């Protein structure tokens, strides 16, 4: 049996891997079920009901406006006059445009508008699971002494480590592709039953596929980084500790300090900003403390656009640094 086949089987048969991936599937099922039951298809009956509700609210507002105007007129010359406009014709008069039927429609799932958020949710959940699986896969080998035993059989260190990470990435790739295909099919069905697929064009489907590919890349980088950190520290806890430290100290701690110091675009230190830029192609960070005044638009704050190109470069740099250090330590440090 080849080393790659053995590592793939070992990873796939680990109970931790099965439980975690099973938990991911259960969470995603819960999300899909929730979206199904909280959305409703816009049938002629629901549209008519919404229009009737809008008309009813409009008529009620008209009656209330007439009552308010009469009260305003009666209040003139009394102490209550201060509660009303000087000219009672200025009392608010409802307009039909203020009561649109769309505002009274039940929630409906528009595939083109809402499914990208579902892709991001899927990628985020699977990426977290990939990080933990990658860290535990190699971390358990180091902690149990299995890595040392394996190197007695196959003494080529870099080949062993690269084969392990290759097995990990293969499993994550297959799992994520199947899951994303099922995810797309499920939400297409939800849109068909509880929303609309009418606005989907070939270009829109292409955009969906490209976004799913970016989600796949995010999952693979997360798994490889978790694997690399655990390999560097030779324990799963090292990767988890680094993750917690980065999130708690570097992310929120540094962000709070920068925000208190009124540093421009402090959100740029948050991993969520970079992940959002990667998945959504761009994210705009606003400096609310700045003001660019113009006669037409008034005071407008400065903005900074993070693009998917910059976010992709950051992901590649993170991957190269962490996995590169893991390979270097595997080659140079003693195996004990």
TrEMBL record:
Transmembrane segments: 19-37, 118-144, 165-193, 213-230, 237-258, 310-330
Family matches, as Pfam families: ABC2_membrane_2
GO terms for cellular component: plasma membrane
Transmembrane helix recorded as keyword: yes
GO molecular function, one term: ABC-type transporter activity
Keyword list, A-Z: Membrane, Transmembrane, Transmembrane helix
Protein name: ABC transporter permease
Species for this entry: Winogradskya consettensis
Lineage: Bacteria, Bacillati, Actinomycetota, Actinomycetes, Micromonosporales
């Amino acid at each position: 049996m080849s080393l790659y086949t053995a590592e793939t089987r070992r990873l796939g048969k680990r109970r931790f891997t099965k439980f975690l991936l099973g938990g991911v599937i259960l969470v995603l099922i819960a999300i899909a079920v929730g979206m199904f039951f909280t959305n409703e298809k816009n049938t002629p009956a629901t549209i008519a009901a919404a229009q009737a509700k809008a008309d009813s609210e409009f008529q009620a507002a008209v009656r209330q406006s007439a009552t308010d105007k009469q009260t305003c007129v009666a209040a003139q010359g009394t102490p209550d006059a201060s509660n009303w406009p000087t000219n009672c014709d200025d009392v608010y008069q409802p307009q039909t445009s203020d009561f649109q039927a769309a505002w009274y429609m039940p929630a409906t799932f528009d595939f083109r508008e809402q499914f990208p958020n579902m892709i991001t949710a899927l990628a985020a959940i699977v990426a977290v699971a990939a990080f933990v699986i990658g860290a535990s896969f190699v971390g358990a080998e180091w902690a149990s002494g299995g890595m040392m035993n394996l190197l007695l059989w196959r003494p080529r260190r870099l080949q062993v480590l690269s084969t392990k990470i290759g097995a990990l990435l293969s499993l994550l790739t297959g799992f994520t592709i199947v899951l994303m295909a099922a995810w797309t099919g499920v939400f297409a069905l939800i849109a068909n039953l509880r929303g609309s697929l009418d606005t989907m064009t070939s270009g829109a489907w292409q955009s969906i596929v490209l976004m799913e590919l970016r989600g796949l890349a995010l999952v693979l980088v997360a798994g490889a980084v978790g694997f690399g950190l655990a390999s560097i520290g030779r324990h799963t806890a090292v990767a988890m500790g680094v993750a917690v430290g980065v999130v708690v100290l570097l992310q929120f701690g540094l962000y709070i300090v920068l925000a208190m110091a009124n540093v421009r675009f402090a959100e740029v230190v948050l991993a969520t900003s970079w992940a959002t830029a990667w998945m959504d192609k761009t994210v705009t960070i606003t400096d609310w403390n700045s003001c660019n005044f113009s006669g037409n638009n008034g005071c407008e704050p400065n903005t900074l656009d993070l693009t998917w190109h910059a976010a992709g470069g950051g992901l590649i740099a993170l991957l190269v640094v962490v996995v590169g250090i893991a390979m270097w330590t595997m080659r140079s440090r003693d195996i004990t």
